Every structure is written in structure tokens, then in C-alpha cells.
Amino acid sequence: SRDRTLPLVEEIDQRHFGIIDSKVRRLMSIPKGNSALRRVMEETYYHHIYHTVAIEGSTLTLSEIRHIIETRYAVPGKSLQEQNEAIGVDAAMKYINTTLLSRTGAMTVSDILEIHRRVLGYVDPVEGGRLRTSQVFVGHHIPPHPQDLQRHMQELVQWLNSDEALQLHPVEYAALAHYK
């Protein structure tokens, strides 16, 4: 039963969070100008874009994504929509890294819509940065009706900025934010 397994799951989570925290401390102790660190950070950046678009069904390889982002030239034989999705994720990540991470203050619905605007900016610039106005279906999941989106977004932002959420481990916070 859940009551029996929950303490074990929480113990395992805490053990994994400890391992992650230890690795983060080791990573943060490396001087920022270290060339190996810069290479790893750059490689991680491209992997993040690759996995973000791959989970949505993109067939682009890691090397193709690197080529698209670095050169802004299209890869022959690949869908322009897929390539534009990768460019949009790159734009959103740059926005997050240069604007949101260095800013103090609470996350807002506008912040989320700015990220959305950049993600969709090269694929669907009219809809990017706006709450949808029509009902969509994702597999067997039925997302909220468009008229309920503003309320759901406000609830999400309220949770993101809550003391309860901000006290979570960053990995748990990210997982729950994604789930919500």
C-alpha cells in the first residue's frame, strides 16, 4: 500500500538528491574559465535541445541539431518544422539563461508565455506566447478547456512561487512543475 511504500520512496529520493547535490558541488567548484567545463556545458546545452525536441518526435540527430544551431543552415532531407523547433528551443533556452536565471522575483504567467513564444516562434509565431483558444487532444489525455487555461496558469504560477514548492529539492521541484 501507499502508506507502506511512501517512506521508502522518500528515503530513496533523498539518497539520490544527496548524490546529485554532491555532484553539483563538485561541478560548481570548477573555475568558470576552465576549458573542459565550457566544453561540457556546451555539450550539455545541445543534449538538452536534442532531448527536448526528440521527446516530441523529432528525428534530428544530435549532430544535426548542433549544425542547425551553430550555422542556422538547414539540414537537407529533414523537415523544416523539426529544424525550426530546435531553433525555437534554442531561443527559449537563451532567454531563460540570460533573463530569468539572473532575475530576482517571482515567476509569472507572462514569463511562461515568453518562453512559449520563443519555443513556437519559428514554427507557429501567431500562436506562440498566447494561451490556446481551441480544444486539443493529446493521445488519450484531454487537456483543460481553453476557457480554463488562465485559471490553471494562475494556479501553476501560485504553486511555483509558494514556500512549499520553493523548499523542494530542485529536481523534485522541476518534476512536479512539469507534472502540474
From TrEMBL:
Q: Which residues are glycosylated?
A: N97
Annotated site residue numbers, Important for autoinhibition of adenylyltransferase activity: E56
Q: Which organism is it from?
A: Amarsipus carlsbergi
Lineage, please? Eukaryota, Metazoa, Chordata, Craniata, Vertebrata
Q: Which SUPFAM superfamilies match?
A: Fic-like
Please provide, in alphabetical order, the Gene Ontology terms of the cellular component aspect for this entry.
Answer: membrane
Q: Which gene encodes it?
A: FICD
Which molecular-function annotation in GO is an example for this chain? ATP binding
Which stretch is the leader sequence? none
- The positions annotated for binding ATP are V138, G139, H140, H141
Q: Which UniProt keywords apply?
A: ATP-binding, Membrane, Nucleotide-binding, Repeat, TPR repeat, Transmembrane, Transmembrane helix
Fido domain: which residues?
A: 107-180
Tell me how this protein sits in the membrane: Single-pass membrane protein
| Name assigned to this protein | FIC domain
> What main location does UniProt list?
membrane
Q: What is the annotated localization of this protein?
A: Membrane
